[in-house]
Each structure stands twice: as structure tokens, then as C-alpha cells.
Design a protein that fits this description.
Distance between the termini: 39 Å
Number of strands: 22
Number of helices: 25
Strand order of the largest sheet: 7-10-11-4-1-12-13-17-18
Structural class: alpha/beta
Strand content: 15-25%
Radius of gyration: 26 Å
Shape: globular
Length: 639
Amino acid sequence: VGKDPENASDYDWFHAVALATRDSTIDRWMDCTREAYTGGQKRVYYLSLEFLIGRLLVDSLSNLGLFDVAREALAGLDVDIERIRLLEPDAALGNGGLGRLAACFMESMATLGVVSHGYGIRYDHGLFRQAIVDGWQHEQTETWLDFGNPWEFERSEVKYLIGFGGSVTAATNEKGEVQHFWHWAEGVRAIAYDTPIVGWRGAGVNTLRLWRARPEADFHLARFNAGDHIGAAAEEARAESISRVLYPADSTEAGQELRLRQEYFFVAASLQDLLRRHIKQRGSLDSLPEYTAIQLNDTHPAIAVAELMRLLVDVHSYEWQHAWRLTTATLSYTNHTLLPEALETWPVGLMERLLPRHMQIIYLINAYHLDQLRERGVHDAELLRSVSLIEEDHGRRVRMGNLAFLGSHSTNGVSGLHTQLMRKTVFTDLHSLYPQRINSKTNGITFRRWLYQANPQLTRLLVEHVGEEVLDEPETRLRELEPFAEQAAFRQRFAEQRLANKRHLANVIQERLGISVDPTALFDVHVKRIHEYKRQLLNLLHTVALYQAIRSDPGGNWVPRVKIFAGKAAASYHQAKLIIKLTNDIANTINADPTVRGLLKVVFLPNYNVSLAEDIIPAADLSEQISTAGLEASGTSNM
């Protein structure tokens, strides 16, 4: 990094170790890429607006089997790896379970040898950093890129032009076929940034490709020199706003437009990229479903249905029905929620203005869809209204959930219960017409991070008793622990490692909040996004009831308890922000009451992210999963 060791800061050491770690992945990454081209395996393309990957240093070193090597090497240079690992910022490219699932899938696919690419947006600022001032949440800019990102490779030669606005014209070609031409009003360039994602024991290395937005035209030097300094940079600022912030507030029309621009931007760039790769390797798109699986993570990338049809019909000259067969055979859709407001809908007017050709395609998909249903004898007006891609009731809107369902050959829920309820609620009418479409894929987590890295003492205990194979074959090897549950010595060791984790979390609470908690108390944990359906309020009512019960019977046989809350509220979600304020007010009241004698403490840890979760989860005695039944799709934090 161009520094003399004598003058190197801890950040310099972090970057040096990260770059050395990255260097150790390159050969395997290149090998995996070559094998994918020569072996002809089917590729998975995972399209997600979120990738909550967290810190990568320990993740990559551990998966490469180099963590102890790095610790020893740095110790020889009088550098403590435990100190520098904490300097890595969390890549805050996600919000909660959906984004963490995407990160887990990337690591898991690399471990299993599934050839895959993750596609998303390289947000300059990601999700906001949460500060608590007088009990209220304040959103601060997340600056994860301030010191650069040592894991990524900018691929400035991999760029695509993405259009917005304008108009559509039609012309008849020499075969008598009508062709459509989209004359966009604004172009934005998508630039690729690649991060290698290492599988367990370096089994495979796959690519997370994130897109950054840049203006189509170069900087207006003439306007700048003429004195219009702000106007000269306006086009640049407008384009770059697309990849500026994860989930810009969409409570305004401008916010809604930016959200839709983000979704189309990354989908359009990703589809152009994967079609280019397929044509280069296969020569024709006829075999696209045979060698390509595109997974839509929630409705955010649902515009891929219309965009893939546009590319096939308008750019690659496929006949409509052939293009539709290729599209539906290639796309699959993961539903994450039964909350109606989370199934995105976009105003028709906004879609017509921003993506006029896509709106035409959506109308056509809808017309064919409804015509086919009538041909099958479906004439119930209410049923047809329900399964239409256009909602007519509260201003005309495009239903992105219905679009993703219709444009995919597979729609999966993320747990057994969620999938059953999906068939009965949000997609009940579509399910009645396409009964084979919905299936269940239960979410999981990468235990490499959540056990091996986040809980090393428990990992050591497992390895000592059932062997190192537990890290490679957990499904079978963990069963071998059952006989040890009857052994007092094992239970003692288990209790000791749990207490050590709780002491660590107690130190974190002391450092961040100045609140002293007893590590031997029951740690009662409720950590996840703050939302009414996740029912933090119900937990707070229990907290107050417990507080009042202790005060009325101070001599009772109470188990000392620490209530631990953490999570962010969406910037424009007033009710969720009130719940955070209430949590902190209750904490202040209870923690300051001497009559409770420390039997109950309440803490709200600010800025919940992957790294904080790695401190909290191994120390939890009780994990509160009290969401309204059936609305928490899988509850990744529970796993």
C-alpha cells in the first residue's frame, strides 16, 4: 500500500492483509471461471437489490484456511489481527433477512461448486448509519467506501448503456413484421465492479458483480468554463444518484422515480451482461434456459420479465411467443412477504414516462394472459381483475408481484408455512390457475460465518467432541452430539463458552452505551428491522409488565434478565421510529430505578448490522421471534 511499516496506520495494515487475502483467491477464481466456460455447466444469476455481506476479511481468510496463518504472520510484525479486523466497515448493501440470504447464497453456491453470479448495485452509501439522540433514531450517511474497498476490481471495460424516458416508434421490416424502436431521452452507463466470493475451504470462487451508475456523456467542460459550474455537473449528479443510496425514501414522487430507476438500471445492465456471456459461449439465445437460471430475489428485479422480452423481441428479433417461452423458462421468482404493501406496484403514468417500451410490453403480456384464460373458460370478472397485471382500483398501477409470477416458471416461498399461506393469500387466484407454479425452498444460513466465525469457542467444543468433519458435513455430524447432552462435563464446557460469549456482549454494551449488565442474567434478545408486524411493541409491553411485577413483589424469586433490542426503522416509517423512542424511554426509566436492584435491564444497541449481529446472536439465551403468525416469511435472524 505504499507505506513504510514504521509509519503505517492500522487502516494500512488492514488494507495490506485484505489485498494479500484477495491475492490468495485470484488463481482459484480464474480457475473456476475457466472451468465454467469449458465445462458448460448451467449458470445461476442471482438478481438482488440487496447483498448484506458484512465484513469479508475473516470470512475470506477462514474459508481459505488462512486465518491462523495471517494471525501468526502479523504477530511476527507486532500487529494484532483482532484489532485490525474491527477496522473493516460493514458493506451495508442490504437491510435485513432478504439481503443476508443473498449473501449466504453466494457463499453457499461457491462452496457447493454451483457456477453463479450475484448482480446488484454498488451503493456509494448503502443503508444509513443509525445514531440515537435523546432516544430518537437519526439517519447518518453510511461511508463504507471512505477508505476504498480492497476486495473489489473495477471493470471499467465492462459497461452498458441504460436508457430512460423518450418515445417508441414502430416500423414494418422487409418480412412484413412490425418492429419497435425505443428512442430514449436519457442514457446512463453501468460500470461493473467485481468481488470474488470464496466458498468453504476454497472449494469455489464465484463473482458478485455490482453496478455503478455514471452519466452517458462526458463532463460539460464548455459549460463549466462559461461559468455554469453547477449546470455542467447536473447530468453527472442525476446519473450517479441511481447508485448513491440503498432504498431512498419513496414517500415522494421523486423518491418513487429514483427507486424505479435503480431497479431497472441494475436489471438492464445484468441482463445485457449475461446475454452477452451466453452468446459468446453458445452462439445463440435458443439454448438460454438450458444453460441459464435467473433468480429474482423479491419483486425488486421483477422488471426483468419485460426487459428480457424487450431484448429478445426488439434487439434479437425473436417472435413474441418464442421469446415468451425463453423468458418464462429462464426466470424464477422468490417471494419474501405476504404483506400486500411489500408487493411492489408502480403507477402506470410513471412507468409510461420512464419506461415507455416496457409499459407496452406489460400491456401485451397482460392481454395474451387474459385472452388465454378466457379461452380456457375463465370468465369470472373478479377473478380476471385479481390476476391482471394492472390494478384498476386506486389509480392504475402495475402489479410487480403478478408480473414476476407470470414471467417465471417457478415461484418459491422461503419456508413451508410461508409457501402454504402464499397459495392461500397474495397469490391465491394465480395459484388456482397455475397450481404447479408455487413451491417451497426453506431459507438457510451459512453456518461457516454464524458458527465457525461468530462463535469460535462453540466451534472448538464441537470439533473436540465429534471431529473436524462437523465443519464439512453438519447435517450428519451434528447428530453425533446428542449422547454428550447427558454428560455433565460437556454441559459444563457448553455453559462456559456461552458465558464467555455473554461477557463479550456485556463489554460491547458497556463500551457503546455505558450500561453495565450482568453476564449471568438471562439475555432476552429481539434483533431485526423495526416494523409493526415484527411486534417489538408487544415485547415492550411485556417488558413494562415485568418491571411492574418486580416492583410490586421485590422479594419474589425473579430470574435476572437483560432485554436487548436492536434494529433500524425505515427513514420515512414514523410509527417504527416511535417504537425506537419508546424503547429508549422505557430503558431509561427501568435502568435508573434502584428498587429493581438490577433484576431487569433494557438496552437498545444502535446501528444493527452483520458485525453487531455476530456479537449478539452467540450470546442470546432467548431469541424473540414473535412476528404476527404467517407474516414473518422465514425469520433468518431466528436461524
